[in-house]
Amino acid sequence: MEIFLLLAFGVAVALAAFFLKPYLDWRYSCGKPLESQISRTSFQCAPGELVPAPWKAPEVALSVVVPAYNEEYRLPQMLDEALAYLESRGSDVASFTYEVIVVDDGSSDNTYAAALSSRDASLQHGEVRIIKLLTNRGKGFAVRTGMLAARGQLLLMADADGATSIRDLERLERALGPKDDSPHIAFGSRHHLREEALNKRAWYRNVLMVGFHFAVWLLVGGNVKDTQCGFKLFKANVGKQIFASLHLYRWAFDIEVLILGSIFGKGVAEVPVTWVEMPGSKLNLLTGAVTMLRDMALVQVLYALGIWQPSVL
Question: What membrane topology was assigned to this protein in its record (predicted)?
């Protein structure tokens, strides 16, 4: 009987630890300066200067934040294409300046060196800045780090695999619009490719995809049909506020971005983008689905209890 009770207690503790892991990850970094999570940067930065003050005016037109974990092979091609496009825009429009911020999420390969090599390119209208985290903290944490360090009027999140063409940035820019009542956030979307994906993918991938979309609708609501596309654009004031408030540090962080956008009363536009499935994904479908469901449930509970609250800049 005692053995059974000990076993049941151990299982209960393990389940509680699993369910609360996002909260514990947040508590671990809560109150720590961002610099304490970083091992090195490719640029000189005095203590306290990595994150621009909220009142500081943007220094460039666009910041492109690229989270990268063990991406030494896919990252160079993505950066080559992105930099060629951004340089061409700078040549056409004199006022267009940019920065690309690669955040190496504690990679164990040569991702940092691969990103450094792109700095050798002759760039006239922008620069590449690289930040390496001490340990792997998750895609959400890497994006958060880059967004808080960004200096652009517009902040673009783009995946290191280059699955979405950088040229689709223009579609997202048009969706935001110049007016204050225009959407402040644009989610790149693959929803228009859904039927094609269902026909090509294995049945279990389709079951997981449809189940995940249903869970998002049930737990989060809203009209955004594709929350997970790694191509999103933010007006700087809203992007800074959202990522300063972010608590989920791994795959489901996009869901909290959507929740925070709703809390702040900022519209979200869903914009169809081109997308090509790239080999080498780091996401395990089964474990990823389970952890995402956990994170979506936990974020709702913690916001409802007032344990997690938006930050005020």
Answer: Single-pass membrane protein
